[in-house]
Amino acid sequence: MSSSRNDSPSATQILLDTRLNKGGAFTELEREELGLVGLMPDGVEPMGVQLDRARLQFEQQSSDIGKYQFLSALQDRQERLFYALLRSDFQRYMPIVYTPTVGEACQKFGHIMRRPKGMYLSIRRKGRLAETLRNWPEKDVRFIVVTDGERILGLGDQGVCGIGIPIGKLALYTACAGVPPQVALPVVLDLGTNNEAFLRDPLYPGLRIPRIVGDECYAFIDEFVAAVQEVFPRCCIQFEDFTNKNAIPLLERYRNKVCCFNDDIQGTASVAVAGLFGACRLSCTKMSDQRLLFMGAGSAAVGIADLFVKQLCGDGVPESAAVDRCWFVNSRGLVHAGMPKLPDYLTRFAHDVSGLKFPAGAHSGPDSPLTRLSDVVEAIRPTAIIGVSTVAHAFNESVIRSMARLNARPIIFPLSNPTSKSECTAEEAIRWSEGRAIVATGSPFPPLHFGGKLFVPGQGNNVYIYPAVGLAVYATEANRVTDEMFLRAAESLASQTTDQDLSVGLIYPPISSIYETSIEVAIAVTRLIFDRGLARVPPPHDIAEFVRGHVYDPSF
Questions:
Q1: Side-chain-side CA neighbours of residue 539 (13 Å)
Q2: Cα separation of 453 and 448, whole Å?
Q3: What residue ranges of the chain are covered by domains with CATH 1.20.1370.30?
Q4: Among the listed ranges 72-81, 136-145, 150-159, 258-267, which one has the minimum average pLDDT value?
Q5: Could you give the 3-state DSSP secondary structure of residue 261?
Q6: In what side-by-side order are the strands of the sheet with 333-334?
Q7: Distant-in-sequence, close-in-space partners of 73: CB < 8 Å, separation ≥ 6
Q8: Per-residue model confidence as pLDDT tens digits over 11-30
Q9: CB-CB contact of 400 with 364 (8 Å)
Q10: Helix (H, G, I), strand (E, B) or coil at 476
């Protein structure tokens, strides 16, 4: 760090710059050269000592939201220490940085906000978005995670407070896959909010107007996407937590024009399909043997079904037969061909139900012959039920016992976040199935014992996928993100699950090893990017070495 004083930041600037500040790790020579002598205690502290102090201070916080605030402040103060802490124990820190605690952080953002992170682009800046983006100090942004805050996790409209999601997502890009933090930018599009509690809250920091919708909303997002291409031409845009009515149309609007993806659709699909690969290994079945029933019929569910269909088609199954293996339940009941007012993206999965055998005493409604999930299970006879509904306890005892009666190894995936919205707990799925369920959950659940056997629930969290895909896109400067990349990511992730993992019911590699897992997934996706001619850099001789050469190292 040696250079003339005139060319270097001042001592105060160094200590206040999260990327330059090393805390007590500055050497004696650095302290002399940088004017830091006397501005900190004389003891020189390596990373390990500072990590011990950070762990102690973290554990002294009395609540999860307090722990979240501590980590947020650490990220503001000393970035490399923050990422080194996350990597030191993913299982401990990830549920605080992201789900489930990030949901509470969004709900309370207006009350706990200290230093703003990211960019806040309000509808008031319409016509000036490119100019506004240039206010960001980093000039080579490669990733933007953007939300409009309308559908944060299962919590609904959080307005500008939804910025917590892009912040958390991008922290995991770096912690899990080594994407350099300086190339990442969290963004919230402030289009107003319909959250009455926020509109009445004097501490709500966003625009106090009803949410902008329709053509005006799309025109604003069009301007944002165009502004990103102008200001950050090598940037990939990740759309996050847009409501169902916008998520799929936005992805279709931009996916073939710019480098972008939607993690709720494609990332969720990838991790779910990876879980199905693992479930097939555990149950000694094939993907083409599976019949999927989705609780929830929004963008996440359709994304999983689409990727599952692509996988089956790749295995030689006709597309129509693959589509026939996917069924959906929405708020009105079983989705079927005669159901009115179905969104376009769902129509190909709306099947003829005339040949179904309805259980005696089944509940029906005005739009569906089956409205009770347990009745749907009896009629459809699925091998797997996948929850992406945010309806807590939807997988009740009756549903899971029916699944266990119909299948030797029922596949139960309650994937909704946060924990309070999970369709069931891991313990419920194991206990009600007499220990036979193959379980993956969206939120973390602890290991448990049942029938004298240890079960370790797999966490079907997108964090296994999007950071790795992000590293591949960053390294290759890919000009597009495709569904094939997410299918390759799912295959790579599933291949890293060991027989030992499977022996305790774990269908994903352990979260504790997610860093190395992510690097391997990134290498697989990088190969595909070069094979498909999507890279904007020349192919290297050694792809694994190439990918690892782009990984951020937080050590001092």
A1: 13
A2: 8
A3: 1-45
A4: 150-159
A5: strand
A6: 333-334, 326-330, 292-295, 384-387, 411-414, 438-441, 458-459
A7: 114
A8: 999 999 999 999 999 999 99
A9: no
A10: helix
The answer to whether the pTM exceeds 0.90 is yes
To the nearest 10°, the Cα dihedral for 275, 277, 278, 280? Answer: 120
Q: Assign domain 101-258 to its CATH superfamily.
A: Malic enzyme, N-terminal domain (3.40.50.10380)
User: Looking at residue 339, what is its pLDDT?
Assistant: 96
What tokens were used for 544?
């694994």
Enter the tokens of residue 35. Answer: 């004017």
Rounded to an integer, what distance in angstroms lies between the CA atom of residue 390 and that of residue 245? Answer: 16
Q: Where in the chain is the domain with CATH 3.40.50.10380?
A: 101-258
Whole-angstrom distance, CA of residue 68 vs CA of residue 424: 25
* Residue 121 contacts residue 190 (beta carbons within 8 Å): yes
Query: How many CA atoms are closer than 13 Å to the CA of 220, on its beta-carbon side?
Result: 20
Residue matched to tokens 């906000």: 113
Contacting residues for 176 by C-beta, under 8 A, at least 6 apart: 90, 463, 467, 468, 514, 515, 518
Architecture per CATH, domain 1-45, reads as Up-down Bundle (1.20)
Q: How confident is the model at residue 6 (pLDDT cuts 50, 70, 90)?
A: low
Plot region of 241 (φ>0 → left; ψ -120 to 50 → alpha; else → beta)? left
Exposure string of 83-93, with b = 16+ CB inside 10 Å and e = fewer, is bbbbbeebebb
The amino acid at residue 444 is P
Q: Any idea which fold 266-461 has? A: Rossmann fold (3.40.50)
pLDDT (tens digit per residue) in 484-533: 999 999 999 999 999 999 999 999 999 999 999 999 999 999 999 999 99
Catalytically active residues are 98, 169
**SS3 label, residue 308:** helix
> What residues contact residue 301 under an 8 Å CB cut-off, 6+ apart?
294, 328, 386, 388
Enumerate the CATH 3.40.50.720 domain ranges in the chain, comma separated: 266-461
